[in-house]
Amino acid sequence: MIRIRDGAVSARPDTLVAEEPLEIRLNGKPLAITMRTPGDDFALAAGFLVSEGVLADRDDLRNIVYCAGATADGGNTYNVVDVQTAPGVVLPDITLERNVYTTSSCGLCGKASLDAVRTTARWPIADTPPVRLDPGLLAGLPDRLRAAQRVFDRTGGLHAAALFTEDGDLADVREDVGRHNAVDKLVGRALQDGRLPLSRSVLLVSGRASFELAQKAVMAGIPVLAAVSAPSSLAVDLATETGLTLVGFLRGSSMNVYAGADRVAQAG
Q1: Would you call 146 exposed, middle or buried from its count of C-beta atoms within 10 A (0-12, 13-18, 19+)?
Q2: Are 14 and 1 in contact (CB under 8 A)?
Q3: DSSP code string of the chain
Q4: Topology adopted by domain 125-263
Q5: Measured between alpha carbons, how far is 73 from 5 in angstroms, rounded to an integer?
Q6: Average pLDDT for consecutive 10-residue bins of the chain (268 residues)?
Q7: Which of 69, 102, 173, 176 is exposed most, by the fewest CB atoms within 10 A?
Q8: Contact 102, 109 (CB under 8 A)
């Protein structure tokens, strides 16, 4: 690339975020295509199916495998995964209308309507044991997430999502070119490890809080979603309906609590 800084011009190499398509198949049938950063693909596929209401326990999952790729010699491109579910798992109706194309910036693109993602949660957040968080604990989470973003330090082009315990301990962090993919990787890993529901966890995302991210939190049983940027109106509506605590503009010592303020000690 050509770098221009204060009038000085120089040529230098740069490190970029990898972005490639991943096709997710369900029991051999194409279900979704997402643009993602390669890595944690099995967790990504599993987490996507948790948010779609297909998987809820690791016993629902029989296997995940890479499929042969589209190269001339039939080699594996590692861009197609097939999720095999256990017998008895209820599957969605895979039709042309239902088939999802997911972009890296919006996981809901291609949905027939907003109602299609208002899936019934397996673990109602309102029924979970109460979590009480000190505002000072919340305020310190973004710096801890930033310190854990290894790939971001090299590229500056990745979103991140992290799971923290109610005591502020970092449990897991994932990066991806798409915010929703990073969350799916977290949730998918929790499913594979038998840790769902995540009823004592805080989910922190590095960008804004969309309806989609709120829905993924609800489907994983996560009671608190915090974002360093703004939430959408639909995210606030969903949080209010489900009992999710939604925190936005989490920067320094300031934050806005849009729903579920009873879990934030000072706001409550």
Answers
A1: middle
A2: yes
A3: -EEEETTEEEE--------EEEEEEETTEEEEEEEE-SS-HHHHHHHHHHHTTS--SGGGEEEEEEPP-SSTT----S-EEEEEEPTTPPPP---TTT-EEE-SS-TTTT-S-GGGG-PPPSS-GGGSPP--B-HHHHHHHHHHHHHH-HHHHHHS--EEEEEEETTS-EEEEEEESSHHHHHHHHHHHHHHTT----TTEEEEESS-B-HHHHHHHHHTT--EEEESSPBPHHHHHHHHHHT-EEEEEEETTEEEEEE-GGGBTTT-
A4: Cytidine Deaminase; domain 2 (3.40.140)
A5: 46
A6: 72 79 90 89 96 92 86 78 94 58 45 44 82 91 86 66 95 91 96 96 92 91 94 86 91 89 76
A7: 69
A8: yes
Per the omega criterion (within 30 degrees of 0), is the bond before 197 cis? yes
CB-count exposure of residue 267 (10 Å: 0-12, 13-18, 19+): middle
- Residue appearing with tokens 């303020």: 261
Distance CA 29, CA 172 (A): 31
Q: What is the pTM of this model?
A: 0.83
Whose structure tokens read 């995964």?
A: 81
- CA 154 remoteness from chain centre: 22
Active-site residues: which are they? 106
Looking at the domain covering 20-117, what would its CATH class be? alpha beta
Phi, psi of 86 (to 5 degrees): -75, 155
